[in-house]
C-alpha cells in the first residue's frame, strides 16, 4: 500500500524524530512511503487566528502537493482535521471545492489509519515503562478519533497504561492562543502537567506535535522526570 | 458600569487579577468537576442523548426561522388571558416601560428573581434611580446585591467565585451575626427575604421559555423564590429575550429537560412553574396585573446573520462548566454579564467589538463547549468566525500580527520559501537555544517561554533526512 | 389589555430573516422524539418504583399506602413533622380519600387546621406563612423526576406550595405517568380543545434547595424545607 506522508510543519522543523518514527513504523507495517516535497503547512495557524484569506494559499499548495496520493497519513489529529475542513473552507469555489473534498476523503490520522485501514491493533512494539495518554482536543472531538491510540498503546509489550485525570481537557496549546494568551495557556499546561505527575507515569504519550511541544515544554521547565513521546515513537519502539 | 459591560479595566488586567485569585480558581475547578459529573450521569442514563440534542436543535432552529409568527401568537394569547405585552426594541425602551409601571403603581419595593436579561437592560439601577427599592431574591443574587451590586461571574450560579467567609462578611452588612455555615446563612436569607416578598408592590421575573400556544411563561428554579415573587405582589412583570420562545407545551417540556440536565445535572429542578396571565377571577393569590416585556436589544441584528445559531442558546451554562479557559480566569475576566464560551460569542454581538474584541481569542478552540451544548450551537466555530470578522472587516487586529500572517501566507504557500525558512531557523534561533531548548524566547515566543521551554529547531529538518534516506535507498 | 410596538418589532425580525412578516406558522412534524422512549413500556408498579428511587435523590420521604390505611399514615407523617398547624386546600378529594374526618378532629388534638378560603385572600397568605405543614394533592405525577403537578384554583392557592415549612403531597397512584412528556401532551390537548389553563401550573420535585454558597447543597431555602409524598393505591 502506498502512503503519502503529510509530516506537518511542526514535525518537519522541530520534531524530526516523530517524522522518522512514522516513516519506519509505516514501512514495517508494509506501506511504501511517498513524501511530496512541495508540502509545507496546512494553514491552521493563520486560519484559526482569523486570517482566512492569508491561509488559503498554503491550503491550495497542500491540495496540489497531495493530488496524486492514494492515502494521506499524518502523525497529527489536528492537522488531519484541518484537511477535513478544506471542503468547507472552499465551499462554492468551482476550482478548488472538489479537489479539497478529494483530499479530505483520503486523509487519515496515523493511529486511525493503522487501526481502521490497515486493520492492525498490535504493531509488535516493545517499550518498558508506565505511560499515560493525553487526548488531543481536535483529534478526539473534531476528528472523532478516540479509541485507536488507546487500543494500540494497550498492545505495546512491557508498557503499563494508566489513565490521565481530565485527559480530555485542553492542554492550553491552541496554536497562536499559546502566545496570544500566554499566561492563561500557561496555567492550563501547568494543571495538565500536575495531572500527569499525579498518575505516577514516567512516559507521557500524545498524538499531536503541538500539544506535545506545549506539555513537553512545561515538563522540561519544571524538570520533572517524565519522558514525552509521540505515539509514533512509542509504536516504533522495539 | 452599565448593562452588559461589567468592568472598565483592560482585558489583560482582568486576566492578571483573576489568575491571582486562588480561592476563586479553586472554587471553579471544584464546581466544574461537580457540574460535569452530575451532567454526565443525567446524560448517560437517557441512552440516546445525541437524539435529544438533535431534537433540541431542530426545535430552536425552527423557532428562530419563524420567530415573528410565534411572537405574534404569544402576544395574542397573553392578551386573551388579560395580560399586557410590550415589545421593546432597545434596553432603554424596556426599562422605561417598567419604570412607568412602577411610577403608576407608586411602587416602593420590588422583588426580583434571577434574570440575565434584566441585567442586560440594567434594570435594577434604572429602578433605583426613580426611588424604588429593588430586592434580588435568588440566594446568589442576594449575596452579590448586598456586596455593592457586584456583577455575576456565572450565568447559573452568579456568586460561584465567593467563599463562605466572604459571604458572611457581606451578610454582616445586613445585620447577620451568626456562623459561616451555609445552612445558617441560607436561613438568614430566607427570613430576611420572606418579609420582602410579603410587602413588595411589584414582582419581576425572567422567563426561561414562553409558550406561544397559550401565552404561558415558564420559570425553572430550585429555590422557589421566583414562585413567591410571582405569587405575592399585586403586579407581575416578566422580562424575556425575544428568542426565548417555543411553539407548545410539548417543546417546552423537551427544552426544560435539556436545560436542567445540562446545567445542574438534575432530571428536573425543584420547581418548573407555568404562569398564564394574571390570577383567575376568583383566585385569591397571584398577580392582579401581568406584563410581559419582550426585549430585542440587538438580537434582531444577529438573526439572519452567520451568528444566528447563538440565538438557539437556552442559557444552561454547560459550555461554561466545561470550558478550560473559564476554569482559570473565572467569570469576571470576560468583563460582561455573559461569561464563558457563550459570553465570548454573545457579548461582542450584543455589546460590540470595541469593548469585547479580546473575548473570541480567549479560547484554545478546543471544542469542549460545542460538544456539550444541548442545542448543538457550534460555539467554537462562532468564536473562529468572530476572529475572521475582526481581521477582515473590522481591521482591529494588531499590525504586527497582520504582517506575520502575511508572511505566513507567502512562506507556507511555497516549499522553496519554506525550505529557506527551515534552513535559517536553526542558526537564527541558536543564540537563544541551550541543550536543544529555548528558555527565554524573543518576540511572540516570550509569552510562551515565561512558563515553558520551546524546542530549538532541528539542526537537520525532517525533509532533509528523508531526502538523504531516499537517495540512500536508490543507490 | 394592551399590545404595544408589535408591528414595528415583528417587521424588523422579518427584515433580518429576509422575508415578509409572518403571523402564522404550522408546527412541523419533528424528525426526533427521544422523550417518548423514556420508561416507554413501564407498568404502573414499575413507575411507582422509579418514583420511589428518585425521591431519594430529591430529599423527599416516600410513603405508600392503600386508601383504607391512609388516615393512619397521614396522621403519622403529620406527627413526624411536629403537628402544630396545618393548612390544606379546599378540595373535595380529601373527603374521597377518607382523610377529611381526620382533619376535622385535629383541632381537638392541638393541631390547628386552616382550609384555603376563596373569600379571605389576606388571611390565606397569613395562615400559609405561619403554617408548619401544607397538604396538597397531585393532579399528575411524573415518575422519572418524582414530580407532583399542582394547579392553582380559587380553592387551591399557589402560595400554599411555598410558604409552609413542610409539604405533604397526596399522590393517587393513578396519576403517575412516566415523565413530563405525558403531562405536556395532556395540557397541549386541553389547549387545542379551547380549555382555559389554570393561571399557575407548578411542577414540584421535592423541597426547595440551593447550592449557591460554595456549591454546598442546602435543602430548604425560600420554599419548603421538607417534603413527603404519600402514594395512594387508588385503583
Explain this structure to me?
- The complex is a heterotrimer of chains A (238), B (475) and C (235).
- With 238 residues, chain A is of the alpha/beta class.
- Chain A has helices at 9-13, 16-28, 44-48, 52-65, 77-89, 97-105, 110-117, 137-142, 148-154, 177-180, 182-199, 209-222, 231-235; strands spanning 2-5, 32-34, 71-74, 107-109, 126-133, 157-162, 203-206, 227-230.
- Chain A folds into 2 domains: 2-116, Rossmann fold; 120-235, Rossmann fold, CATH 3.40.50.
- The longest helix of chain A is centred in the last third of the chain and has 18 residues, at 182-199.
- Chain B is of the alpha/beta class and 475 residues long.
- Chain B contains 23 helices and 13 strands.
- Chain B has a 6-stranded parallel β-sheet, with helices on both faces. In chain B, strands 8-5-6-9 form a 4-stranded mixed β-sheet, with helices on both faces. A 3-stranded antiparallel β-sheet of chain B has the order 11-12-13.
- The mean pLDDT of chain B is 92.
- Chain C has one domain: NagB/RpiA/CoA transferase-like (Rossmann fold, 3-Layer(aba) Sandwich).
- Chain C is 30% helix and 24% strand.
- In chain C, a hairpin with a 7-residue loop joins strand 11 (209-210) and strand 12 (218-219).
- The model of chain C has no long low-confidence stretch (mean pLDDT 96).
- At the B-C interface, helix 2, helix 3, helix 4, strand 1 and helix 8 of B face strand 1, helix 1, helix 6, helix 7 and strand 10 of C.
- Strand 1 of chain B pairs parallel with strand 1 (3-4) of chain C, so a sheet runs across the interface.
Amino acid at each position: 500500500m502506498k502512503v503519502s506522508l503529510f509530516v506537518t510543519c511542526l514535525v518537519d522543523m522541530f520534531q524530526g524524530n516523530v517524522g522518522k518514527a512514522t516513516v519506519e513504523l509505516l514501512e514495517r507495517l508494509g506501506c511504501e512511503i511517498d513524501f511530496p516535497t512541495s508540502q509545507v503547512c496546512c494553514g491552521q495557524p493563520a486560519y484559526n487566528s482569523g486570517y482566512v484569506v492569508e491561509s488559503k494559499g498554503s491550503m491550495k499548495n497542500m491540495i496540489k502537493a497531495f493530488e496524486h496520493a492514494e492515502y494521506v497519513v499524518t502523525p497529527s489529529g489536528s492537522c488531519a482535521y484541518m484537511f477535513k475542513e478544506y471542503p468547507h473552507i472552499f465551499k462554492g469555489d468551482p476550482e478548488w471545492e472538489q479537489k479539497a473534498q478529494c483530499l479530505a476523503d483520503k486523509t487519515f490520522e496515523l493511529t486511525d489509519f493503522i487501526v481502521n485501514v490497515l486493520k492492525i491493533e498490535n504493531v509488535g512494539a516493545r517499550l518498558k515503562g508506565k505511560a499515560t495518554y493525553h487526548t488531543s482536543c481536535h483529534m478526539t472531538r473534531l476528528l472523532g478519533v478516540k479509541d485507536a491510540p488507546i487500543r494500540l498503546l494497550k498492545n505495546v509489550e512491557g508498557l503499563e497504561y494508566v489513565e490521565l485525570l481530565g485527559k480530555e481537557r485542553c492542554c492550553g496549546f491552541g496554536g497562536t492562543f499559546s502566545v496570544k494568551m500566554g499566561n492563561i495557556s500557561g496555567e492550563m499546561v501547568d494543571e495538565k502537567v500536575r495531572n500527569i505527575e499525579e498518575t505516577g507515569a514516567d512516559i507521557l504519550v500524545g498524538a499531536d506535535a503541538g500539544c506535545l511541544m506545549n506539555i513537553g515544554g512545561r515538563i522540561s521547565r519544571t524538570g520533572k522526570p517524565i519522558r514525552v513521546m509521540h505515539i509514533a515513537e512509542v509504536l516504533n519502539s522495539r | 458600569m452599565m448593562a452588559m459591560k461589567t468592568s472598565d479595566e483592560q482585558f489583560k488586567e482582568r486576566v492578571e487579577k483573576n489568575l491571582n485569585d486562588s480561592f476563586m480558581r479553586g472554587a471553579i475547578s471544584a464546581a466544574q468537576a461537580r457540574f460535569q459529573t452530575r451532567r454526565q450521569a443525567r446524560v448517560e442514563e437517557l441512552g440516546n442523548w445525541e437524539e435529544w440534542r438533535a431534537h433540541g436543535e431542530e426545535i430552536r432552529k425552527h423557532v428562530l426561522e419563524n420567530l415573528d409568527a410565534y411572537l405574534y401568537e404569544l402576544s395574542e394569547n397573553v392578551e386573551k388571558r388579560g395580560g399586557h405585552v410590550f415589545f421593546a426594541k432597545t434596553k432603554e425602551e424596556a426599562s422605561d416601560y417598567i419604570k412607568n409601571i412602577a411610577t403608576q403603581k407608586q411602587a416602593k419595593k420590588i422583588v426580583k428573581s434571577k434574570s440575565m436579561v434584566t441585567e442586560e437592560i440594567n434594570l435594577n439601577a434604572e429602578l433605583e434611580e426613580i426611588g424604588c427599592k429593588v430586592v434580588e431574591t435568588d440566594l446568589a443574587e442576594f449575596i452579590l446585591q448586598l456586596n455593592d451590586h457586584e456583577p455575576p461571574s456565572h450565568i447559573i450560579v452568579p456568586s460561584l467565585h465567593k467563599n463562605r467567609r466572604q459571604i458572611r462578611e457581606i451578610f454582616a452588612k445586613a445585620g447577620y451575626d451568626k456562623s459561616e455555615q451555609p445552612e445558617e446563612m441560607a436561613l438568614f436569607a430566607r427570613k430576611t427575604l420572606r418579609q420582602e416578598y410579603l410587602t413588595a408592590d411589584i414582582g419581576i421575573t425572567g422567563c426561561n421559555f414562553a409558550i406561544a400556544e397559550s401565552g404561558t411563561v415558564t420559570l425553572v428554579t430550585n429555590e422557589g423564590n421566583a414562585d413567591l415573587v410571582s405569587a405575592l405582589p399585586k403586579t407581575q412583570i416578566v422580562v424575556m429575550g425575544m428568542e426565548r420562545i417555543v411553539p407548545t407545551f410539548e417543546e417546552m417540556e423537551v427544552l426544560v429537560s435539556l436545560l436542567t440536565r445540562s446545567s445542574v445535572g438534575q432530571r428536573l429542578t425543584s420547581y418548573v412553574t407555568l404562569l398564564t396571565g394574571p390570577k383567575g377571577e376568583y383566585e385569591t393569590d397571584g398577580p392582579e396585573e401581568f406584563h410581559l416585556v419582550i426585549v430585542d436589544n440587538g438580537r434582531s441584528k444577529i438573526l439572519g446573520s452567520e451568528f444566528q445559531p447563538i440565538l438557539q442558546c437556552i442559557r444552561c451554562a454547560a459550555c461554561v462548566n466545561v470550558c478550560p479557559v473559564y476554569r482559570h480566569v473565572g467569570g469576571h475576566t470576560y468583563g460582561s454579564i455573559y461569561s464563558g464560551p457563550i459570553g465570548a460569542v454573545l457579548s461582542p454581538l450584543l455589546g460590540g467589538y470595541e469593548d469585547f474584541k479580546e473575548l473570541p481569542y480567549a479560547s484554545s478552540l478546543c471544542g469542549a463547549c460545542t460538544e456539550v451544548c444541548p442545542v448543538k450551537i457550534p460555539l467554537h466555530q462562532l468564536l473562529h468566525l468572530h476572529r475572521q470578522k475582526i481581521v477582515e472587516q473590522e481591521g482591529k487586529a494588531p499590525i504586527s500580527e497582520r504582517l506575520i500572517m502575511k508572511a505566513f501566507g507567502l512562506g507556507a504557500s511555497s516549499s522553496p520559501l519554506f525550505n529557506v525558512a527551515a534552513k535559517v531557523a536553526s542558526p537564527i534561533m541558536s543564540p537563544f537555544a541551550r541543550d536543544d531548548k529555548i528558555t527565554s524566547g524573543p518576540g511572540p515566543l516570550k509569552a510562551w517561554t515565561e512558563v515553558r521551554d520551546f524546542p530549538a529547531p532541528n539542526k537537520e529538518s525532517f525533509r532533509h533526512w528523508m531526502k538523504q534516506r531516499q537517495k540512500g535507498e536508490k543507490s | 389589555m394592551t399590545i404595544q410596538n408589535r408591528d414595528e418589532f415583528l417587521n424588523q425580525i422579518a427584515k433580518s430573516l429576509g422575508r415578509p412578516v409572518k403571523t402564522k406558522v404550522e408546527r412541523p412534524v419533528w424528525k426526533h422524539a427521544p422523550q417518548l422512549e423514556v420508561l416507554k413500556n413501564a407498568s404502573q408498579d414499575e413507575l411507582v418504583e422509579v418514583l420511589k428511587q428518585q425521591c431519594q435523590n430529591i430529599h423527599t420521604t416516600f410513603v405508600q399506602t392503600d386508601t383504607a390505611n391512609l388516615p393512619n399514615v397521614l396522621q403519622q407523617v403529620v406527627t413526624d413533622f411536629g403537628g402544630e398547624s396545618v393548612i390544606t386546600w379546599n378540595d373535595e378529594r380529601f373527603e374521597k380519600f377518607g382523610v377529611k374526618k381526620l382533619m376535622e378532629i385535629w383541632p381537638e388534638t392541638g393541631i390547628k387546621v386552616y382550609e384555603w378560603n376563596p373569600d379571605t385572600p389576606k388571611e390565606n397568605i397569613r395562615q400559609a406563612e405561619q403554617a408548619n405543614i401544607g397538604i396538597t394533592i397531585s393532579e399528575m405525577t411524573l415518575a422519572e423526576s418524582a414530580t407532583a403537578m399542582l394547579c392553582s384554583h380559587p380553592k387551591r392557592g399557589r402560595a400554599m406550595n411555598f410558604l409552609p415549612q413542610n409539604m405533604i403531597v397526596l399522590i393517587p397512584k393513578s396519576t403517575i405517568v412516566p415523565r413530563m412528556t405525558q403531562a405536556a401532551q395532556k395540557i397541549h390537548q386541553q389547549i387545542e380543545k379551547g380549555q382555559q389553563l389554570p393561571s399557575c401550573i407548578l411542577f414540584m420535585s421535592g423541597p426547595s434547595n440551593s447550592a449557591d454558597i460554595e456549591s454546598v447543597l442546602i435543602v430548604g431555602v425560600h420554599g419548603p424545607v421538607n417534603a413527603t409524598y404519600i402514594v395512594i393505591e387508588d385503583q
